[in-house]
Amino acid sequence: MLPSLSAARASDLIARFDRLPILVVGDVMLDRFIVGRVTRISPEAPVPVVQFQSEYLRLGGAANVAHNIAALGGRPSLVGIVGADAAARKVREQLAAAGLSVDGFVEDRERPTTEKVRIVTERHQQVARVDYEREADASGDVERAIVEQVTRLGHGARALMVSDYLKGAITRPVIDALLSISRVPGRSSVAIRPIPLLVDPKIPHLDFYAGATLVTPNHHEAEAATHRRIRTDDDAREAGRDFRKRAQCAAALITRGEHGMWVSEERAEGSLPAVGREVADVTGAGDTVAATLALALAAGATLTEAAALANHAAGIVVGKFGPATVSREELLAAFTIAS
User: Fold this and answer.
1) CA 305 from centre of chain
2) How many CB atoms lie within 10 A of CB 15?
3) Is 0.90 surpassed by the pTM of this model?
């Protein structure tokens, strides 16, 4: 077990989140929810008939990470790909409503904006999902435009966050551009060490992340990368060490669902138990974890402290339906109650 984070220290770190500039680079998504009531089974096929009741939109992927950073008081810049379509307009509208800029968007007319349409019941049970996407990595002019946006917006950032969903925005040249910013201390007026580069990964891109400060695989991704089954803390310890070697990163944080998190770095290893809450939906919880980690490290937290903050943030957001955000007040209250 890792040492607990006191309410006083948590309060101090959360207060430092205010206006911290964070660059988020990755796959921008739109999540659309069609909500209805299941009335019967279709006579045409053995599937439920959903009687429409309502529809709403949420930001997903890298856009949800940026939204969470803003909700926690940070100042995110967002770089990603959108298509020339209605979904892109909706993403821009959603970001504008949250007070976020779309200045870092790169438009690719050859691909749709990634959109996930979920059909759910009034009790939040998912019936089906339809994905609009193109998974090919960006290349040519689009890739060069992403690198240019990263270079332009990355200077002055206190942390760099990669949100990789294998939808095309993250390529080796994009990671190289981020590493070149991360490795040069002093580009931010308050930076006295390399700027932390965090990656919410996908295993097919694992070789891209070499040199990152922190990579945050979930339980299944860590197993796939290390060819280890993770059932106990001892398993997690070995998997964490193997993952760091495999990804060539300084630290790893394995998210383990109801089993909490495992932190693995040279100076500290250990588990953080899951914060007990009623789970409504885990969609987007990883985005909340990523946002909290980036802000905490930018604020001067140790990895263990950042993980403790992220663990509590995850415990809050899984109690909400769909991709959601956590406020500074909610996060602070979680530590006050825990103490």
Assistant:
1) 18
2) 12
3) yes
For residue range 216-226, what is the model confidence (pLDDT) as tens digits? 999 999 999 99
Q: Read off the tokens for 295.
A: 């802000």
Kindly tell me the burial class for residue 129, based on how many C-beta atoms sit within 10 Å of its own C-beta (0-12, 13-18, 19 or more): exposed
- In Å, what is the CA distance from 270 to each residue of 3, 243, 253, 293? 9, 15, 10, 17
Query: Which residues partner with 261 through β-bridges?
Result: 255, 272
pLDDT digits (tens, 9 = 90+) for 240-287: 999 999 999 999 999 998 899 999 999 999 999 988 666 666 677 899
Q: What pLDDT score does 123 carry? A: 82
Which class does domain 7-28+60-112+134-338 fall in?
A: alpha beta
Span between the terminal Cα atoms of the chain, in Å: 17
Task: Map out the domains of the chain as residue ranges.
Answer: 7-28+60-112+134-338
Q: Is 91 exposed, middle or buried (0-12, 13-18, 19+ CB in 10 A)?
A: buried
Could you tell me if residue 61 is left (phi over 0), alpha (psi between -120 and 50 degrees) or otherwise beta? left
**Beta-ladder partners of 241:** none
Token couple for 17: 């989140």
Three-state secondary-structure class, residue 85: coil
What is the Cα–Cα distance from 177 to 167, expressed in whole angstroms? 19
> What residues act catalytically?
287
| Residue 243 φ/ψ, nearest 5 degrees | -65, -45
Contacts of 226 (CB under 8 A, 6+ apart): 238, 239, 242, 243, 246
What's the Cα-to-Cα distance from 326 to each of 16, 157, 284, rounded to whole Å?
16, 22, 11
